[in-house]
Amino acid sequence: MGETHVGYAGNASERTINVIEILALAEEPMRLTELAQRIGIPKSAVHRILTSLIDRGWVEQNQENDCYALTLRMALLGQRQLAVLDIHNLRQPILDRLAARTKELVRLTTVQNDKLVWIGSARGRRSGLVYEADMTEEIVPFATANGKIWLANLPTSQAVKIALDAGLGKRRDGLRTITTVEELLPELEDTRRRGYGLAQEEAEQGVAAVAMAIRDEHGILGTMSVAAPVNRLGPERIVAILPDLRRATEAMALAWHGRNQVDSKSVEKTSSAKSSRLARKTN
Known about the structure:
two-stranded antiparallel sheet, alpha+beta, five-stranded antiparallel β-sheet, 283 residues, Arc Repressor Mutant, subunit A, Beta-Lactamase, 9 helices
């Protein structure tokens, strides 16, 4: 005789989620028959789902009684997600403070697979000429302030390869973008010397930006930038922003690993001397 069941419940993804949710709420391991009845699909279908989940380390089967239960994988992922959310709660106030002080757009990146990606932002200006950026756009490393400070902290050969892979050498109509390795190398050297990246209408017309790296003892974690219409972000304004940007990157480095935010005054004391020297160099 065929299997009796209530009816097919959803597609394969929905069925898999149903199995996981039922096992998660169960007070004790469950038998295959019970799972099939709860979900309303044939035992053969549930068995295929369970086999796949066992292979992926999500479910375990007791060989003595053939009952199924979740492994600790979901609990561990849940703990990790809570940590990620907590880190976000630590990072966002730093972005918000810098945006409030500069009255401009502040953005945060991280490094993923030899690319920079946007992971946070804060807008400081609510009226007048406001720069609105697309947080889904690809970061061109050789044409952005964030990208330049990142590349400047990498070995030269690696930086050149990343730039070439990202399209260095291709025309970008209407923009003041670097187009050759010969132009890129001195720009990266200047960026290393300054300690911050600059971009003036290179990735986007009418927009300028300044960026600094966020570091820990192992290297670069990401970058942080302040961007604005080019007529608001000239050399003098950049010099004025540098101390706040440096303090923000130092605070972000501490928050990055989920540490409690440090007192901003203590960060200010440790970085004010550096920022003053940096400003004098720029002048």
